[in-house]
Amino acid sequence: MSSQSSAHGERVEASDGGNLSEEPERAQAYVQRPLPTDLTLPTETHRALAMAEHTLGELNESTRRLPHGGMFALCTRLREVQNMAQLAGTSLDLTEAWLIELLLARATGDSAEQVLRRHPIGRVILAFAHGAARVEAGAVVDGELIGEIDERLTGTVTGSTESRLRTRQSWLSGRSTNQIPILTTPPGAMLHGAFALWSTWAPAPHPLPRIGKISLGHLNLKLMDPFENNGVYLSCIYTSLEMVCSRLLRGQVLSLASWLDENAGEYHDRISAVVDGAPIEQWIDFFARGVQAQAAAQLRLIQELDRLRESMLKRVGGSSTMRSVVAGLMTAPVTSNRALEAMYGIADRTATQITRKLEDHEVVENVGRRTYNKVFVCQPVLDLYALQTPLASESDRAVFSPPAN
User: Fold this and answer.
1) What does the alpha-carbon distance between residue 310 and residue 10 come to, in Å, rounded to a whole number?
2) CA end-to-end span of the chain, whole Å?
3) d(CA 236, CA 213)
4) Cα separations (Å) of 168 from 13, 24, 225, 268, 318?
5) Cα separations (Å) of 204 from 53, 112, 140, 208, 217?
């Protein structure tokens, strides 16, 4: 097997070129060298890392003021799932992600399996939730936890993590036809060795700023692509979990996949540049810029949610319970009577009265206009999560509505 060295790894022949009919015959796979234990970075890169970490600190403080910080983390996680799905080529609406979350919350035993079979994206939600629970319980983000997450992504348990490493060549595709696919680490001894190195490196102390190390962990997990069909999910879930594990964030309140999806073309080009031998600080700078941009976007989102909450409270008024429910919609914009009963400890009759009043004031709407098992959505809140920018006025937004029949 011939090879060609580059700054951070080497190009080798793909393991099974016969299966890569759409790839050029001369295409070579990429195997990264052992991850660095130290790097000398330019001042500009250190500045980008410091700005990103500072903005994450501001985001941490802002989440303290939210009425339901845990639900904000859940909503952000569901948005992360939505954007990861888009990166993987699957269209998923944020409302649909919330509906699946509500179904999973009610599912037990065999019914949980049925939910997963009907909604494959439910496995992504469960995998994310499993990783979050393990980190909260004190686990480190290493190969073992990544293997557990992959088990839940696939819905199957097939022995040890090492036994499930992929056995076929994979590649990273770009968004446009002119972006050359990147062949990942070949299966077999090379992949097993790379995964073992990553698993040891990931939880170990590192002199780089935390965001810098996470950027390298994300990059190398992406280029390694250890399991079948789950590369996009694993690298993004790793990043989200490690932000919490390294104490940059108290909870999963940053949806980096949103920024990566919006900048998917440059994302692929930056990874390709590393493979071609570009300075690693260019990748770190790109990653830090994304973290800083998304943290700033989350700060703006929290400000807009606060304004929307005040506006809705003035419109609805009512009891302290009603006001709590309205405030809660800012972090749980898709809900049901049963969910409200569980969250606020209220009776079914009270929950029904509240949702009926919220419908009357056009704060929520009944999804599908169901008669039973109603699900309610607060669309203005979902719009904010989807756009993360201040919305136009209702009159301006009406311009983009379809004409009446």
Assistant:
1) 56
2) 66
3) 14
4) 13, 17, 11, 21, 60
5) 20, 36, 10, 12, 11
Instruction: Name the 3-class secondary structure at 367.
Output: helix
Cα diameter, the chain: 74
Length of the chain (residues): 405
Express as a percent the part of the chain with pLDDT over 70.
87
Per-residue model confidence (pLDDT) at position 398 = 40
Give me the pLDDT at residue 26, please: 45
In this structure, how many other beta carbons lie within 10 angstroms of the beta carbon of residue 37? 11
169: exposed, middle or buried (Cβ count in 10 Å: 0-12, 13-18, 19+): buried
Separation CA 242–CA 248 (nearest Å): 8
The model's pTM is 0.86
Q: Is 22 exposed, middle or buried (0-12, 13-18, 19+ CB in 10 A)?
A: exposed
The token duo for 90 is 């699957």
